[in-house]
Write a structure and sequence with these properties.
about 450 residues, mainly beta, 8-stranded mixed β-sheet, 4-stranded antiparallel β-sheet, 9 helices, about 10% helix, globular
């Protein structure tokens, strides 16, 4: 504000309240929250017109999307709503590729299932000749507190099959990975097209291409968007931190135990304190959880916060008295084939404004205890985004919730799709999973989802 405006006072005071409210409503939620702190008059206008709506933001966990091998659609594991209300319909058109703050990245589109819209993506750019030993993984970035727009990143990674079966030039094998200038395609909903973007590396690489093969990867590559940066699983459990603010990136070493291990059940996710690395040791009940600590000078280190041997035998709900549990699987693949819905004759509604899970309401029945043999193969099923809770799958049969702060273990319900054994045979497996936080912010797509 220049001196002439200072002398004249705050010119916004000349605007009618409705006009000023209309101006402030055009800001993103984070800007509205900042405007609310400017003065009492602005705060009163924002509150009176209900411009700031935190209830529309992705601030609650509705459930977990689960990708089962051999099934056509994504399954949804959630706590049933107390009443019929606004919710996700009975199926997603295809498998979920990624999730970020309420939006789902599908095979060739981005969707908001709770609002019922889908936006197609343009065809992917053709790969360059230099990408003969590279693949691209798709990741979604969306922050409704700053903008209604989203981005999709195609991030190159090493192709282990090509590296093992193709004659690669020695000079390429000696090349650093990721390269100092990391080139990738990015789709922005602002421009509606794919554009090339380069990120400049700060610090050392993960290694050379030769050093990074054979490539040990987690069962699924995941990413976390946190405070303006995208954290991505890389080769041999390294994490690449892409800063979207200044187009730089940094390679973060994994916890030491992962550097000396082979293929492991690990998970990169976010929870109460930020970015987490979770490791469930195969063929054992040991669970380890690290939290990433970052300094302003760019130093990043994984701090081990939990190292637990889960209780064996694991408790479960009494099957004779409670068939499902506090949570249920939507079982959309079975219901699609049988042309039926789950809750009523009209449409299924699985996400409600009051459906945020409160574990204090769940009573765990431990009268029937089962031997460890019935729970072999416990694997990760995600993190609660806002509470320190690790979700686990017990042999693909039961969903478990382990509370890190209290060491409380809950059996929250069956996750096994109906007739899945007959459908999948020997190939049954959980390929991926995405804790889902619904976003009800308005958006004007050109195509509806349902």
């Amino acid at each position: 504000m220049d001196r002439s405006m200072e002398q004249q006072g705050d010119m916004t005071q000349l605007l009618p309240d409705d006009a000023l409210a209309g101006v402030l409503a055009r800001l993103a939620p984070r800007g509205i929250a900042a405007s609310r702190c400017v003065c009492k008059a602005w705060r009163d206008i924002i509150d009176a017109h209900r411009i700031l709506r935190p209830d529309l933001l992705p601030l609650s966990l509705a459930g977990i999307f689960i990708e089962f091998r051999e099934l056509r659609y994504s399954e949804f594991f959630c706590r049933p709503p107390p009443r019929q209300g606004l919710g996700v319909r009975d199926r997603i058109a295809c498998s979920v590729v990624d999730h970020c703050n309420g939006l789902l990245l599908l095979y060739d589109s981005v969707a908001n299932p709770v609002m019922g819209w889908e936006m197609p993506l343009p065809p992917r750019p053709p790969p360059s000749l230099e990408m003969e030993c590279l693949l691209e993984d798709d990741y979604l970035v969306f922050d409704p507190t700053t903008s209604p727009h989203y981005q999709v990143f195609l991030i190159p990674r090493l192709n282990s099959i090509e590296l093992e079966t193709t004659q690669i030039k020695p000079t390429m094998l000696e090349s650093e990975w990721p390269p100092s200038s990391y080139l990738m395609w990015v789709f922005s909903s602002v421009h509606g097209q794919w554009e090339e973007k380069t990120f400049i590396r700060q610090g050392p690489p993960a290694g050379t291409i030769a050093e990074l093969s054979p490539i040990y990867l987690c069962d699924a590559r995941r990413a976390v968007y946190w405070r303006g940066a995208l954290y991505v699983h890389g080769e041999q459990y390294f994490v690449t931190r892409l800063s979207l603010l200044d187009s730089t990136y940094q390679v973060i070493k994994p916890p030491n135990i992962l550097q000396s291990a082979g293929s492991q059940d690990c998970y990169l996710g976010k929870s109460k304190k930020g970015v987490y690395y979770v490791l469930m040791h195969r063929n054992s009940s040991r669970l380890q959880v690290w939290v990433l600590e970052e300094s302003r000078d760019g130093y990043a280190e994984w701090m081990l916060e939990h190292d637990i041997d889960l209780p064996v035998p694991l408790p479960r709900l009494n099957y004779r008295r409670q068939a499902y549990g506090p949570w249920i699987l939507q079982d959309v693949n079975y219901n699609e084939d049988k042309r039926i819905t789950i809750y009523n004759d009209n449409e299924s509604t699985i996400v409600d404004h009051d459906s945020e899970w409160n574990s204090d309401d769940d009573a765990l029945d431990t009268e029937d205890m089962v031997g460890a043999g019935n729970h072999n193969g416990a694997s990760l099923l995600g993190l609660h985004p806002f509470k320190e809770i690790v979700f686990l799958s017990s042999g693909m049969r039961r969903g478990l919730a382990y509370h890190l702060s209290t060491s409380k273990l809950e059996d929250i319900g069956s996750i096994y799709p109906k007739y899945y054994n007959e459908i999948s045979g020997a190939f049954g497996d959980i390929q991926d999973f995405f804790p889902y936080t619904p976003c009800r912010m308005e958006y004007l797509p050109s195509k509806t989802l349902f």
